What we know:
Elements: E1 8-10, E2 16-18, E3 26-32, H1 41-52, E4 57-63, H2 75-86, E5 91-92, H3 105-113, H4 122-131, E6 148-151, E7 157-161, H5 171-177
Parallel strand pairs: 3-4, 4-5
Antiparallel strand pairs: 1-2, 3-6, 6-7
Amino acid sequence: xxxxxxxxxxxTQGADIPLSDYAGKVVLIVNTATHCGFTPQxxxxxxxxxxxxxxxFEILDFPCNQFRGQAxxxxxxxxxxxxxxxxxxxxxxxxxxxxxxDAHPLYVYLKTQQPKDEGGRLITDGLLKxxxxxxxxxxxxxxWNFTKFLVNREGLVTARFAPSIAPLAIxxxxxxxx
Length: 178
């Protein structure tokens, strides 16, 4: 596959959603959790969505419970929590795995396209590595919740940002693709 448009994901109601529905848009794909130190990033994600949705920007939220069980709710419960607590209006999908044998094919693809996080903070990234000790990781694996993949209008992955990078810190990269 040479872009994200060949993948299908499930929404919180279990319906298949082809990513070709997002063709021609700039997309930010994020694995999230509701009980994570980075969960307040939902506010900045919504800020970006509010600013740029009219210009063809989408955020695809993929809850993931692989990092210390920080997303224990169902996908629909997570969507409700995020709408209520953070005012999110972008799409939350069903929970998925992003690493390991059960990793969703979309995330397998994303990680092969951008195997390393850009940016990051040395101290925070070091703490994330400590937190994930004992977890077997392969090259390119997601290190924690709120890793962000930026995709251009052609469906190509252009960047991967560390969990410690705040969404507003990547606003310039988003604007450049819009």
